[in-house]
């Protein structure tokens, strides 16, 4: 089976630069969708002509170690992981999706990299990565990162931006220092309501005055225990495309909160107004809307916690199974835990509860598995649905919103079951 995903009938917004910023009206990726595919098979042929030869070379080198991912866009680089390649309890670095809004910095070595913490703090600081390591407790946590636009590909009418299917989610093991410890050391002043995050990547226009992305967090969220300023991913230096040498990892909130190539955290007495903080970026209407509705910007709300969701990582869709087989995957829910995962192989007539693990730590997804048997040979769909600790269950259908965020409808895989 070829793992090239045929996207020829994807809407022609597939290569737009953004997963939901105001700037994403109109720009097409340089290549047609059909020229994009699995990372590895396209290296060397997908170099956009706008890039200098040197930078394009650096970019394809940076994609090394990500073979098997599906490339959705090459400028900026966006690549997702097919669901069956997300089977590991902890996502290996080569299976972690990539979502860039701009051009990654060319030099991502830890040498000389510094983090500035300033704004409304008692003692502004600038520290190297070694100084961060030496000054604060170093912790390792498995943390779930999901792009706010994961699942956008299934919106009807389509939403502009990267056409993520299922694979803009991961749970790697991150090592770093707690954001809270660093902010407390700097001395957060009483007037602070928001953080502003800054990274070293470059806007697609090349304009040094513009940031591709600069998001922030309400200060109460920033002070929670499981947000890391990370300098290791799965026990090694971060992959250059995943924010080396230093990044934020904010589990359970839209991935855009997790600033990569982190250089500065600013403390503010107003909501941060950096790139893609404004509606409709990473925002949904404050009230339910009919599919296709044009919603005025002032009616949007910034997304906070991501909703409850599950992913089936085995069996792989479009494969053959026996009459008895194991179904397994992961489930997560923003700032909550998942209390139940159920699966069906009869289009929802009956549901079977899966065995569900606790998260290995606060902020990690939960692994689940179930043995199923089917009554006769033939075509089956396996669907999964999770229910979180507040009793909120994944919806069957997509709750449409203009920018294609928060699609947590059931994941479905198709299999052909053989005779017993
Ligand atoms: N500096 C910077 N940080 C960034 C981004 C970016 O474009 N620039 N993209 C964000 C988005 S939208 C997501 S979903 C996550 C993706 O993290 P990953 O590429 O390591 O999977 O990074 C976030 N951090
Ligand atoms: Mo994202």
Automatic annotation (TrEMBL):
This is Sulfite oxidase. Residues 1-10 have a biased composition (Basic and acidic residues). It comes from the Bacteria. It comes from Histidinibacterium aquaticum. PROSITE patterns: TAT (PS51318). Its cofactor is Mo-molybdopterin. InterPro entries: Ig_E-set, MoCF_OxRdtse_dimer, Mopterin_OxRdtase_euk, OxRdtase_Mopterin-bd_dom, OxRdtase_Mopterin-bd_sf, TAT_signal. Residues 107-274 form the Oxidoreductase molybdopterin-binding domain. GO terms for molecular function: heme binding; molybdenum ion binding; molybdopterin cofactor binding; sulfite oxidase activity. Pfam families: Mo-co_dimer, Oxidored_molyb. Residues 302-416 form the Moybdenum cofactor oxidoreductase dimerisation domain. Transmembrane segments: none annotated. GO terms for biological process: sulfur compound metabolic process. Keywords: Metal-binding, Molybdenum, Oxidoreductase. Residues 1-27 are annotated as: Disordered. PANTHER family: SULFITE OXIDASE, MITOCHONDRIAL (PTHR19372:SF7), SULFITE REDUCTASE (PTHR19372).
């Amino acid at each position: 089976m070829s793992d090239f995903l045929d996207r020829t009938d994807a809407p022609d917004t597939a290569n737009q630069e953004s997963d939901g910023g105001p700037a994403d009206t109109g720009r097409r990726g340089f290549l047609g969708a059909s020229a994009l595919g699995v990372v590895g098979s396209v290296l060397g042929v997908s170099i956009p002509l706008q890039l200098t030869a040197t930078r394009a070379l650096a970019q394809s080198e940076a994609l090394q170690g990500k073979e098997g991912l599906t490339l959705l866009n090459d400028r900026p680089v966006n690549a997702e992981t097919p669901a069956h390649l997300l089977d590991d309890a902890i996502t290996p670095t080569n299976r972690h999706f990539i979502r860039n809004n701009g051009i990654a910095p060319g030099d991502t070595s830890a040498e000389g990299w510094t983090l500035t913490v300033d704004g409304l703090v008692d003692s502004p600081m600038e520290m190297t990565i070694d100084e961060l390591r030496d000054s604060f407790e170093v912790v390792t946590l498995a943390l779930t990162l999901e792009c706010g636009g994961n699942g956008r590909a299934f919106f009807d009418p389509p939403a502009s931006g990267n056409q993520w299917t299922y694979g803009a989610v991961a749970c790697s093991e991150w090592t770093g220092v707690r954001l809270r410890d660093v902010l407390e050391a700097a001395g957060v002043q009483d007037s602070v309501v928001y953080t502003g995050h800054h990274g070293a990547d470059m806007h697609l226009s090349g304009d040094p005055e513009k940031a591709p992305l600069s998001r922030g967090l309400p200060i109460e969220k920033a002070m929670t225990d499981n947000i890391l300023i990370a300098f290791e991913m799965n026990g090694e230096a971060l992959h250059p495309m995943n924010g080396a040498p230093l990044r934020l990892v904010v589990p359970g909130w839209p991935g855009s909160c997790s600033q990569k190539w982190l250089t500065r955290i600013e403390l503010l007495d107003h909501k941060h107004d950096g790139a893609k903080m404004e509606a409709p970026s990473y925002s949904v209407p404050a009230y339910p809307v009919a599919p296709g509705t044009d919603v005025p910007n002032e009616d949007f709300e910034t997304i906070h916690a991501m909703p409850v969701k599950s992913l089936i990582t085995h069996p792989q869709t479009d494969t053959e199974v026996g009459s008895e087989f194991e179904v397994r995957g992961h489930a997560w829910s923003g700032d909550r835990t998942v209390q139940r995962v159920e699966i069906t192989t009869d289009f929802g007539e009956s549901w079977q509860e899966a065995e569900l693990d606790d998260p290995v730590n606060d902020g990690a997804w939960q692994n689940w598995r179930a043995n199923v048997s089917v009554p006769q040979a033939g075509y089956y769909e396996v669907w999964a649905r999770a229910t979180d600790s507040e009793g909120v269950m994944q919806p069957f259908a997509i709750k449409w919103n203009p920018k294609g965020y928060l699609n947590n409808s059931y994941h479905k895989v198709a299999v052909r079951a053989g005779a017993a």
